[in-house]
Specification:
The protein is an alpha/beta fold. Helices cover about 30% and strands about 20% of the residues.
C-alpha cells in the first residue's frame, strides 16, 4: 500500500494516546434543556482534539455517523496549529497562522488531522462511517492519510458535491464548482451486512418519479423504459433476442449481456415486460415499473445543488436565521447536504458527531431530519472558536424554538429538541491532583478511571457514590474511593472494613481505585479485589 510521509508524522502518530482526559463542565445557562446531561444532544466548546478524548469514556464505539468540515488549508483561513506535541520542531509551529507562504502548511495540516482522525475512529461504532468535506488542495493527501488511519480497504467512495450553480467569470483554467466528501467505514464488511447502513436507500423525489410516465392500463401501473443489459458478462446471458414485430435479431452490446436468462426473457416478452419502442420496431428495453422502486434509490456519488443545496443557499439559510447579523462564514454548508449524509449513514436512533461544527449546520440537519421521519437521532457538536455559544449554539436554539421569518413551515414553527452545553474543563492528571487545586468532581474522576481501566462505556446513572460503586464492566465491578478534597485523599485507604463492606462476591472481581491500601495480597485475593492506586505521589506525601 502506498503511504504518505510528512514532517512530524512519526511524532504525531501516537499523540492521541498522550492527550490527557479533560473534564466536561456543564453550563446550565447556555443549555436548552431541563436537565443538563452528557446523554443529551451536546454542544461542546473547546479544542476538538481534547474534546474528542474527553468524549471517549461516554461515547467510545457508539457513534454511527461522523461528518467533519475541517480547514481546507487553502492559505487564507487563518487557522493555527495548536497541538502541544513534545517536539522542538512542532513547538516552533505553535500559535502561528498557517498561510500560503508557509512552506510547511501541508505538513502542519496533516499533523493536525492525524490524531483527530484516530480519535474519531475510536468513537465510531464498528458499523459506523466518517464523511469528510475537502477540496482539491488537500484531497489527495487526505485520501492517503485516511488510508493510513482507517485502512485502504475501508474506503467507500469520493462524493462530488456541486457547490456552485454558475461558472466563475474570473476563474483561471477552470471554474471550481465542486467540493469532495470522502467516505470511510470503520469496518466496511460490517456496513454491507443486513442492517448495515450500506443498504440504506434515499427517499425518492417527485422529479425521479416523474420519469415514470407510461401506463399500459393493465393494472401494473406507471413505468419507464430501462436498459435491458448489464455490465457483468456471462456467456449464458449472451444470446439473441428477436423482435416479434419485425423478426430483427438483437445481441447485447460488446462486453455486456442481457439482464436475465433466455427462459425468463421469453416469459418477459410474452408478458409484454419488454418494450420494443413506441412503434414496436425498436431494440428491446425493459419496462421498469414505479411500484418496484418506490422503497428508495441507491445514493449516487454526484450530488447536485438542486438536490442538496449549494454554498449560496447555505449563506441564505444563515441569513434567514440570523437576519442582518454579520457572520464569519464565507462558505457554510447547506442543511440539505448534511441531511443527505445523515439519511445515508444514520438510522432514526443513531448518534451523529461533528467536531468542526462551525455554524451548527449538522445539528440543524439532524433536528430537521428527526422531524421528517420521527427519528430520535442525537447530535454531538464540538467547536473551538469563541463563537461556539454566540453562533453555533444560538443557531440551534433558534431552529429548536422557531424562526419567525422562515419560509419553511417546520422551521418557522420550531424543530423541537434539547441540547446540553459543555465547556472543556481542566485535565485529569497526576500533576493537577498533587497540587490539590481544582480537583475533578467524583463523577469526572469516575468517568476517567472507569474508561481508562476497562476501555468500556461509562454510564453515570450506575453510580452509587456513598458505596464508591462507579459501574460494571465485562470483567469487573469497579469502585472508587475519592473526594475532591486533598485531606481526604491523604487520609483515605482501602482497609479491611471498607473491603468487606463491598458485599459478597457475586462472580466478578472487584476493581478498587483508592489513594492507598492497608491490605496484603492474601486478603485482596480472598476478597476477590484488584487494587489500583490513584497517583502514588499522594500516598508518598502522607
Amino acid at each position: 500500500m502506498a503511504t504518505i510521509q510528512f514532517k512530524g508524522k512519526e511524532i504525531v502518530r501516537n499523540h492521541h494516546l498522550t492527550v490527557p482526559y479533560h473534564e466536561l463542565v456543564p453550563d446550565d445557562k447556555r443549555s436548552l434543556t431541563k436537565k443538563v446531561s452528557l446523554n443529551d444532544n451536546l454542544i461542546i466548546h473547546g479544542d476538538n482534539l481534547l474534546a474528542l478524548k474527553a468524549l471517549l469514556p461516554t461515547y467510545g464505539g457508539k457513534v454511527q455517523c461522523i461528518y467533519i468540515d475541517p480547514p481546507y488549508n487553502i492559505g487564507n483561513e487563518n487557522w493555527v496549529y495548536n497541538d502541544r506535541v513534545n517536539s522542538p520542531m512542532m513547538k516552533e509551529w505553535l500559535g502561528k497562522i498557517v498561510d500560503k507562504d508557509d512552506l510547511t502548511r501541508h505538513d502542519k495540516w496533516l499533523c493536525m488531522m492525524m490524531p483527530r482522525l484516530k480519535l474519531l475512529r475510536e468513537l465510531l461504532c464498528d458499523e459506523g462511517a466518517i464523511f469528510i468535506s475537502i477540496d482539491d488542495t488537500e484531497q489527495h493527501r487526505l485520501r492517503l492519510l485516511a488510508d493510513d488511519v482507517f485502512g485502504e480497504d475501508n474506503f467507500i467512495t469520493n462524493i462530488i458535491w456541486q457547490k456552485k450553480y454558475a461558472a466563475a467569470s474570473d476563474a483561471r483554467f477552470f471554474s471550481d464548482n465542486h467540493d469532495f466528501i470522502i467516505v470511510y467505514a470503520k469496518n466496511k464488511a460490517l456496513t454491507e451486512k443486513d442492517g448495515g447502513w450500506a443498504r440504506n436507500l434515499l427517499p425518492r423525489t417527485e422529479k425521479q418519479d416523474s420519469l415514470y410516465k407510461y401506463d399500459d392500463n393493465d393494472g401494473k401501473g406507471l413505468w419507464r423504459p430501462d436498459n435491458l443489459t448489464v455490465k457483468t458478462y456471462s456467456k449464458e446471458y449472451d444470446y439473441p433476442i428477436i423482435n416479434p414485430n419485425t423478426d430483427k435479431i438483437y445481441f447485447p452490446t460488446k462486453g455486456r449481456c442481457w439482464a436475465t436468462n433466455p427462459d425468463t426473457m421469453k416469459q418477459w416478452i410474452e408478458e409484454k415486460r419488454v418494450f420494443f419502442g413506441k412503434n414496436g420496431k425498436g431494440a428491446p428495453q425493459l419496462k421498469r415499473y414505479l411500484k418496484e422502486v418506490q422503497e428508495g434509490i441507491v445514493p449516487l456519488t454526484i450530488w447536485t445543488y438542486d438536490e442538496v443545496g449549494h454554498s449560496d443557499s447555505a449563506r441564505k439559510e444563515l441569513k434567514e436565521i440570523f437576519a442582518d447579523e454579520k457572520l464569519p462564514f464565507d462558505n457554510p454548508k447547506p442543511t440539505g447536504l448534511i441531511k443527505r449524509v445523515i439519511q445515508i449513514a444514520a438510522g432514526p436512533g443513531s448518534i451523529v458527531l461533528d467536531s468542526f461544527s462551525g455554524s451548527g449546520t449538522s445539528a440543524h440537519a439532524n433536528l430537521a431530519l428527526n422531524q421528517d421521519d420521527s427519528g430520535n437521532r442525537k447530535f454531538i457538536l464540538v467547536e473551538c472558536e469563541d463563537y461556539a455559544d454566540r453562533i453555533t449554539a444560538e443557531r440551534v436554539r433558534r431552529v429548536i424554538k422557531g424562526v419567525k421569518n422562515a419560509k419553511d413551515e417546520n422551521l418557522k414553527n420550531g424543530l423541537g429538541g434539547t441540547f446540553s452545553y459543555y465547556e472543556l474543563g481542566k485535565p485529569i492528571d497526576a500533576e493537577r491532583i498533587l497540587k490539590g487545586k481544582d480537583l475533578p468532581t467524583f463523577i469526572e474522576m469516575a468517568r476517567y478511571v472507569f474508561y481508562s481501566a476497562t476501555g468500556e462505556e461509562f454510564n453515570e446513572k450506575k453510580i452509587e457514590e456513598k458505596k464508591g460503586f462507579i459501574g460494571e464492566s465485562k470483567e469487573y465491578q469497579v469502585y472508587l474511593l475519592y473526594k475532591p478534597d486533598m485531606e481526604f485523599l491523604k487520609s483515605t485507604a482501602l482497609t479491611l472494613d471498607r473491603a468487606e463492606s463491598l458485599g459478597k462476591f457475586t462472580g466478578k472481581k472487584r476493581l478498587v481505585f483508592a489513594p492507598a491500601k492497608y491490605l496484603d495480597k492474601e486478603h485482596l485475593e480472598r476478597l476477590h479485589i484488584d487494587f489500583a492506586q490513584l497517583p502514588f505521589e499522594i500516598y508518598q506525601k502522607q
